[in-house]
Amino acid sequence: MGERYSHLITAIELIEEHEHxxxxxxxxxxxxxxxxxxxxxSFLNMVIHIQTDLHARELLDVTQKIEQQCGRKRxxxxxxxxxxxxxxxxxxxxxxxEDLSIPHPRMWERAFxxxxxxxxxxxxxxxxxxxxxxxxxxxLVDKEGVRRWIEPTEKEYEPIVSSKDTHSKSLPKK
Length: 174
What we know:
The protein is an alpha+beta fold and 174 residues long. It has four helices and eleven strands; from the N terminus they run H-E-E-E-E-H-E-E-H-E-E-H-E-E-E.
């Protein structure tokens, strides 16, 4: 699980490569301590805003495939993992399926979600809570544990060939 940044960047590249997804913008990367199963490395978190013509269920399939490509194993709930991609919001839709709830059911309680989301969309309102994202952030007890993470410089990376052998990617030097 030591290649946190590499997995995050690889996931973004795979999302950008998908023909039905356009990356609109991305937040800074934030480092946070794990919740639940705490015997693991701290997490890197970020939020991206995308545009897609996929349905939410299709987007979930894409994100789960990307998680698998990055070595994700679903062994321990909240346990160590290479990557965890969540669909937080999908237009203005509310959905409740067995494996997909939109908005994400716990997103409003988690500073590691709210802080990067607020960076991208500072005027966002949670209409069902009748609060702005700033009001929600102020009420979060774990917000002090969300630290902006400094991305490594390109000099700290060396190009490797992707599994598709179609383009180069960068991974940290060992």
